[in-house]
Amino acid sequence: MTPLRQQMIDAMRQRGFAERTQRSYLWAVRDLARFHRRSPAELGVPELEHYFRHLALERGLSGATCRLHRNGIRFLYLKVLQWSAFDVPFVVPKRAQRIPELLTRQEVVRILDACANPKHRMLLKICYACGLRVSEVVALRVRDIDGERGLLRVEQGKGAKDRLVPVSPTLLTELRRYWVLFRPTEWLFPAGRDRCTPLSISSAQRVFSRAKATAGIAKIGGIHGLRHAYATHQLEAGLPVHRLQRVLGHGHLQSTLRYLHWVPERRPEAGGPVDLVAGLAVRHG
After folding, report:
1. Tens digits of residue pLDDT in 109-128
2. Which site from 34, 182, 200, 232 is most exposed, i.e. has the minimal number of CB atoms within 10 Å?
3. Which of 74, 121, 227, 233 is catalytic?
4. What are the Cα distances from residue 81, in Å, to 4, 24, 39, 94?
5. 156 in any annotated domain
6. Whole-prediction pTM
7. Are the C-beta atoms of 158 and 250 separated by less than 8 Å?
8. Residue 212 catalytic?
9. Over the range 226-237, which residues count as b (16 or more CB within 10 Å of their CB) and which as e?
10. Is 158 labeled as catalytic in the residue annotation?
11. Is residue 116 part of a domain?
12. Which of 153, 224, 243, 258 is catalytic?
């Protein structure tokens, strides 16, 4: 490991960056060094501008991927190499404004019904019933479930923030049945029989993809679609946007407001999150 790479790792750890962010930023810097065949410390603005043009024009990367590269490289030069500014021209493809295809409640039921494995079915059900990200649901521990207060603790979610998510009485009952059946000790969804490690994100994504295919649902989107469905169905039931923002763990209200595109006529009641599981007529129970 080069000293520069170690310095960057140390700088990211000091700031509490998530492991996935650290890997992405290191990958971006490594790609820059390979492109110019020189250490990033030896490069200047012209070389960086050339590299960013290469990403967009020659490699045809998406706007999101180009921005990821830029964020990692910008961090290196500002926080590690101590540049006073990062004034590098940066033009990326215009981001397409699309509304993902929303899963209806009936389609959620079909996906859950198509998942024969009880552990996997419970994982998908929590994703939908609590609006969790896939990274959050696989990281759940048994101790994160507060049955007395009806809350679920999301530890160090996106942005390195903890939050509490309401758990409906119906879901709590099903979680108790799940615990009796599988007796998880630490991780709520352990990988394999050793129970020492949690299920991986990619495994959870495959579980959803298989269930969706078995259910015959052709809508585009992965497991994150269950989180989208949670947000939209709660808005339809009258949950205020600012409360949904807290439950979803959004840092900015603008991220939550996008769900209003799916809800042209919201109910005006300012109640709490509704019990989405109670209305699901899932065959497996």
Report:
1. 999 999 999 999 999 999 99
2. 34
3. 227
4. 9, 18, 12, 30
5. yes
6. 0.68
7. no
8. no
9. bbbbbbbbbbbb
10. yes
11. yes
12. 224
